[in-house]
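sorry for the late reply, my laptop died twice this morning and i had to redo everyting from scratch. anyway the thing you sent over, i finally got around to it. pasting the sequence first so we're on the same page, its 277 residues, then the predicted structure underneath. double check i copied it right bc i was rushing
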Amino acid sequence: MTRHLRSRLVPAAPLLVLALGVLTGFASAQEAAAAAEAAHPQGDSLITLFIQGGWVMYPLLVCSIAMVWLTVDTWGRTGIKKLAPPAQVAQMQDLFRSGDYVGAYQFGKNNNSAFCDITRVCLSFAGDGEEAVETAMFAEINKVNAAIQTRINYLSVIGVCTPMIGLIGTVAGMKGAFAELGKSGASDVGALSGHIGEVLVATATGLVIAVPAFLVFYFLRNRLQGGMGGLQEVVQALFRKMPYEHLKGAHVGEEEFYAALPNWVAGGEAAPAAVAA
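ok and here's the structure:
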């Protein structure tokens, strides 16, 4: 029985030795990590770095939160499904097929989207002819594009300002470092390293925020261009082959017209001399 057990254990000896070596190495690594943590008890946690960076970390924190919020907000606004929701497009197409332009106007008024707003404005100019509709269409598309582009531009502002804010922290940290060096010389290494750490953390934080802000800015700008192109195609497809000859002079919308005949024509009076001249 003992001989049989020995014959089974001898081939497994190298595996046992390897396992023992791995366990020994793992224990040694744990001991080394514990020793390093004991030597540097504060570590490099985010809170420690934030405190070390000085007062400039607070505006940088605000900039980082604004960058995240603008990224999420403009991402949702620039998608074609947000600009022209498929369900609204399908409903508007059905109303156009049936010739119910008043119903299409009311549908556009009751639904909030760039597609519905542009279609509603275009329908209000349908009685003035094709040229007036196209002018109103491009004006509204430019308005929507400008409103979203303004939000995207704030990302570029953040990308420009955060390195400058970090540079202010760099200058403040260097000033404190030189003041400490002139006060106590090179003997107080801890205080001097604290000021130098403030310099490095502030500068690095500004760059860490600026680089993603610029990347997201260019990405969302291109995404907006694609979304606006798709929106324009959808709206133009609705008004293609529009029977403008049957809509001439019609007032589809609810907008009030302020221009009227001159009061001297309505009242039968003579035209003023300045106008007649």
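Residues 59 and 119 are 42 Å apart (CA to CA).
thats about all i looked at so far, will dig more tmrw
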